[in-house]
Amino acid sequence: MMTETKYVDDIYDYKGLWDAPSKCGLKIIRKSDEVIVIATDLYDKNPGTSVTDCCAMFATKLCEEKNINHKDLVFIEHTPDLKSKLSFNNETFYRVEFDWSDDKFCNPKWQSVSKKEINDFIEIK
Amino acid sequence: MKFQLIYPKWEKLEGQTVFHLPPHGPVVFAASLPEYVEVEFIDENVEPLNYDDNVDFVGISMLLTTQIKRGWEIATEYRKRGKKVIFGGISTMLHAEETMQYADSIFLGESEGRMEEVFSDFRNNKLKKVYNFINDRPDISIVGPARRDILKREFYYHKGIQMVDLFHASRGCRFNCYPCAVAYLGGREFRPRPIEKSIEELETIENNRIFIVDNSLAGSTKWEKELFKEMIPLKKNWCSHTIEDKPEVLDLAAQAGAWYVYQAIFDTSDYIKERIKRYHDYGISVEGTILLGLDDHTEYKIKKLIDFLLEIDLDLAEFTVLTPFPHTKAYDDLIKQNRIFNLNWNDYNAGKVVYQPKNMTVDKLQELYHYAWDTFYKDETQNQKMFRLMLKVANKEVENGTYKSRYNDLNAVSFGKDVIR
Predict the structure, then answer these.
(1) What distance in Å separates the CA atoms of residue B351 and residue B369, rounded to the nearest whole number?
(2) What residues does B408 pair with on adjacent strands?
(3) What is the mean pLDDT of residues A75-93?
(4) For residue range B353-412, what is the model confidence (pLDDT) as tens digits?
(5) Cβ-proximal residues to B81 (8 Å cutoff; 6+ apart), any chain
(6) How many domains does chain A have?
(7) How far does B249 lie from chain A, in Å, by closest CA?
(8) In this predicted model, what pLDDT tens digit does every residue of B56-94 receive, in sequence order?
(9) Whole-angstrom Cα distance, residue B68 to residue B321?
(10) Please, what is the average pLDDT of chain B?
């Protein structure tokens, strides 16, 4: 598992779809006006649901658990490079925008973001 | 109590040989029903439904995504008539939230050891909306012999020739492949059935020809070898998904009746070529499964792959286009990239392009899919190649004294329908 530690501070356990015990890498950066969350796919080390598959539910519960105001959340999905020949195992970053309705996130929309943009954004040199 | 168990029909792929195998999920499920339940099974692919049958409770078992919309229609008709409907099976799990809208109840997970509760709730009018056992899998050793007695056997013959019977020796898969939902459905842990249970079940199957439907028998070499060793005296002939290509495994597999195996072919490497040769060296035929439309596929690369298939002496080939089934990494990736343009589940048959390919147009990938089938079967049709495989197995059966001749009473019938000559 080629997870770069600069994007992962903790392994986070969460309930995925139908309460499936699930895991992802997590980094939370609290700034004055926003809270950046990077959720990293653990591929085979995740026994349950991927973050993408339960994205809105995941973000809602994370805000509750980590005391994040939903309006401040900047949510990034990260899939690390598995160093394989297969193109679908390349590294990707997506910023996810949600609608907010009935006290929960819904309708996720993903926007691809470059690694440099992410690094600049979270001030990693 | 009369329980009607229904397997909805689906539209078969255009231009391909149509055949119907006796379904596996429903017969495995039926083995987990309480004794007091009288089950009537209807495979809608081979016989019509009558919504007005006198039944107490209706179950809809769905394997494929292309079955679900039909399953919803069936449920709606029964519910209009005041019958309670429960859904289960693989595609119920893949499409659970949507299916709930058409159901009195949905069952998620594996049914062994759970049906007493469900039927007790039904009888007490306390049926739950969801039975969620998706993360609470039963002990694999309690999986009993499937209830093949519920099948109407005459429907699974083509011109007097019986179709293979389906059987499983394990669940779960340690791999988590890009287009596959098995990790979500059956878990990442390979769970082999005890060898004696598998053998006991195989002994109950009168059919000499078996399709072992496990996602991969390659989960444990020790178990795989032991299984094959114990299968030798049964004199069955079988096809399966991938098995390991170690000489000691192939040797035992061949002795145990390995007829042909499916092998994913994803590139034109010597690794693939040698693997196919190794199977052939042990007399095991190979059906290549070729997935078209991955992000590194160009028109040139796909055509080169098809040329390669013709060089390596494959016995059969099956082409599919990448289909982003829910709860797969393929779905995750394509939904994030906003490349899925068709969410009509009837089109998720692995023959229609439902997403925007990376290196070509939708029409071009669709055209290449047809090109692949046409080119591979240009000199010898799919029927001719299948006939060769049938001949091979018949010869083996004659040699070991297990050959059964055609069932003459069904010579003029194909899957329950009269053959038009």
Answers:
(1) 8
(2) none
(3) 86
(4) 999 999 999 999 999 999 999 999 999 999 999 999 999 999 999 998 999 888 888 999
(5) B51, B52
(6) 1
(7) 26
(8) 999 999 999 999 999 999 999 999 999 999 999 999 999
(9) 20
(10) 95
B269 CB-side CA count, 13 A:
8
Cβ pair B184:A49 closer than 8 A: yes
Of residues B6, B3, B34, the one with CA closest to residue B111? B34
**Domain contains A2:** no
Query: Residue A66's domain spans which residues?
Result: 7-122
Q: Which residue of B has its CA nearest to A55?
A: B332
Please tell me the distance in Å from A121's CA to the nearest CA on chain B: 21
Burial B174-196 (b: 16+ CB within 10 A, else e): eebbbbbbbbbbbbbebbbbebe
Whether B318 contacts B386, CB under 8 Å: no
For residue B113, the distance in angstroms to the closest alpha carbon of chain A comes to: 19
pTM summary value = 0.94
Q: Is A34 exposed, middle or buried (0-12, 13-18, 19+ CB in 10 A)?
A: middle
pLDDT for position A3: 57
Contact flag A19-B337 (C-beta cutoff 8 Å): no
Judge whether A1 lies within some domain: no
Cβ of B188 and A87 within 8 Å? no
Nearest to B60 by CA among B26, B100, B10: B26
Distance CA A21, CA A15 (A): 5
Question: What stretches of B255-310 adopt beta strand conformation (E)?
Answer: 258-264, 285-292
